Request: fold
Amino acid sequence: MTPQAPALVGKRILITGPTSQVALPVVARLAPDNEVYGLARFEKREARDEVEALGAKTLAVDLAAGNFQDVPKDFDYVLHFAVVRSGDFDYDLRANAEGVGLLMAHCRDAQAFLHCSTAGVYHDERPEPLKETDPLGDNHRVMMPTYSICKIAAESVVRTSARLFDLPTTIARFSVPYGDNGGWPWYHLMMMNAGAPIPVHVDGPSYYNLIHEDDYMGMLPGMLANASVPATTVNWGGSEATSIEEWCAYLTELTGLEAKLSPTENTLRGIQLDPTRMHERVGPTQVSWKDGLRRMVKARNPELLKDS
Reply:
């Protein structure tokens, strides 16, 4: 039975990584009805201004340093979207793995903690959709050498911290987010517009579970409702899988732009998720990938649409 999802109204919520493509729409959605804090390094003043303009308060913190002395402790919910990908293993492990443990220790009294992990923790050579119990692996090394290892390490720290602090936790293995604010398909559109080659793996088609911003924001209460001790791990992606090859072909259909696919071994393999547990615990996604892509192009580059 699906747990009762909390109403995210009048709550005190901490969102890490609030300037990211994924989390900024979450700040925009939650800040009007809640007391939202955005935590990041905020090295650029304009990034901090952008978050504050949405109605959130900001906290300048380096997760690797763990300097939480100015961070409140009485949050109802923590949404941990922050990720560091510097390529330096020592720093990235401190920021991503040690940092989340220190954050959970600081916020141990929260009602629930959502850790946004990634589908990039899975071993990438299995042809069938991947379940939460399937083998893990270092599939992102070809492009981001620290990413998969740090995400796997972070999940282990999160599981330990959930038990250590009795903090109800959900670990959500996120697929490919996109929407009116962009995402990977939008970068492909920009490459198509520039006539640049788009790398796809030679073992394609490269399947992923595109998830629209409307869906992942709408599923936040359900993800929090499933928080538990020990932590709940759940795949988080679109109910309908599609491939880079398919979504580029559809972008061609929408715009008339050519997608110059370039097969190579030096890019990511597809990672298709099995959404069964997500469907049972949280429900299916609502935005089909074709509708979402059309909306994305109309929002960001309406001049490229053939019927605009």
